[in-house]
Amino acid sequence: MKKIFKFILNTIPRPILIRLSIVARPIIAFLLKGNKFTDPIDGNSFRMFLPYGYGTQRNNVLSPSTLSLERHRLLWLYLQNETNFFQSELDSDAVDSNPNRIKIGDTKTNSKLKVLHFAPEQEFYKRFKKQANLDYTTTDLLSPLADVKADICNLPFEDNQYDMILCNHVLEHIPDDTKAMQELYRVMKPGGMGIFQIPQDLKREVTFSDDSITDQKERAKIFGQYDHVRVYGRDYFNKLRSIGFRVEEVDYTNTIPADLVEKYCLAKGEIIPVVYK
């Protein structure tokens, strides 16, 4: 199975993969029903998760029902437990179980959160679209799920527009990531929040890139994926700070019980880069 998934990932273009997965997902989910692992996004449980990886395949990481990976499930749990992202401000009588949760947007009004989501993931797209408390816009150059086809280095949005920006596993694809970060900063509202996850080698102090490596197999081996242009190190956080963001390096798996980290198939020690303007 691992060889099949690796072949599919490395040969079929991502937009086509998205369309094919919509058809295959319910069949795979039915066949893998069980109780060993649980996807916290939809609450469904399975006897195994699917393998995933363009180079080295990781076991039990791709949820059969939502097609979420470790980072998606971690992001979901963080937004759900630590922010008001899922809490409609229209429901003013709701009792908040976590009074310390991060308040995104203007909590003094009933206005919707203006959210900009780059390269929207399937597991989030329909759910976020349905949320009454969100004014939700998706953008990407190629994704069939994008409302606005746009270059992240030249966004067609006005300054200071968005309360929340989700830009996850995008910047490693962008040659001029400095310009992309500047654009993210420009369109975020003052006081706004963003989550900019990237594949990161936390043992590496300095980000590595080498444009002379052009062979796709070699790029997949070195960068983790054939269409990545760099491997981010720990200096990623300071680069975001140099743009003007205030950055929190959140090790959220450290706050989750070990049995749930295993049950949800999370990557222990993965850092969530949470930024503010």
Automatic annotation (TrEMBL):
Organism lineage string: Bacteria, Pseudomonadati, Bacteroidota, Flavobacteriia, Flavobacteriales
Residue ranges of domain Methyltransferase type in the record: 130-195
Keyword Transferase on entry: yes
Organism name: Flavobacterium difficile
GO biological process, one term: methylation
Designated name of the protein: Methyltransferase domain-containing protein
One MF term in the entry's GO annotations: methyltransferase activity
UniProt keyword list: Methyltransferase, Transferase
